[in-house]
Amino acid sequence: MDHSAAFQEYEQAALAAIAAAADADALEQVRVEFLGKKKGRLKDLQAVVGKVSAEERPVVGKQFNEVKDKVSAAFEARKSDLNKPQAAAAGLDISLPGVVPRLGKRHPLSQTMDDFKDIIGRMGFTVAEGPEIEDEHHNFVALNIPEDHPARDPLDNFYLSAAAYANGQAPERLHLLRSQTSTVQIRVMEQTKPPIRIVSLGRVYRPDTIDATHSCMFHQMEGLMVGEGVTMAQLKTVLRLFATTYLGQDVRIRFRPSFFPFTEPSVEVDMSWSDDWLEIGGAGMVDPNVLREVGYDPDEVSGFAFGLGIERFCMRRHHVTDIRRFYENDVRFLAQF
Ligand code: FA5
User: Which domains does the chain have, with CATH numbers?
Assistant: First the structure.
């Protein structure tokens, strides 16, 4: 066979074999067969070059190198093709920036409640639960709120059966959406002997006029500590420590004398907000009448209780200036938390 025919045959066979190699192993076999340095078809081809006359050798040698380079280049190209991930072979460019997945997140108020449980838990408070649909006994009566108290006015509460109320049914048998988490204080004390140190977080409902700091459904964290020798000083320490841990050391907390039927003395708690004050909760020493109602002896144990507005803490921490943002479910707002 003359050298030209030998080159042509080698080239065609090598390119066909390279193209047909389905994976790296098959391609490696092709390399050994067609480009191997010690033996194989390239060696045979070299022998052909060795047989041509001295005059012809430079030209034939050049042809040999051209064929060898062509086959080597085809081999390298196939090798890098086989190394590419499947996606790229299918026409996907994995080097393009991806689309950020829209993963769901916990609602800012749920995040706040988790933070609250964490902080107050470090002070030894455990979490208690109570129902959102309450009876008047737990929402009012046991909390020392008499029947003629304005807080029980049907216009100030979401009673579930206004008709029954109008029919003169015994008030204790009426149900309403709880207006405060203080109901859980009673439920816990009815079932537990002191010492007690609990918090309860959840929704409460009031037909308040809605504005930037008021909603008709909002969240409170109730706290209750009962035992021998529990004092107002401990209440103030717990609230101050809690508020500064969640809001930062720069927040100022102030206690104003107030009145709640179920605490004596009672205070209103405010936090600094810009250049102003915003009320964040009510608190006080558990009224002896309440302790008696659940079968405790006020001469033996004392206690403090507090009820904090969860939204308002979250608002100050995250600079949210309108409480309504929490309930609109606008993804642009929620995605920031
Ligand atoms: C109470 O609800 C008492 N149960 C608190 C309490 C508990 C006093 C234990 C003593 C002992 P008040 O109505 O002030 O108190 O509400 C407490 C907090 O809930 C307020 O300071 C405020 O932060 C929040 N809050 C009240 N009404 C609304 C509303 N409509 N929207 C948003 N937050 C509110």
Answer: 3-89 (no CATH), 108-334 (3.30.930.10)
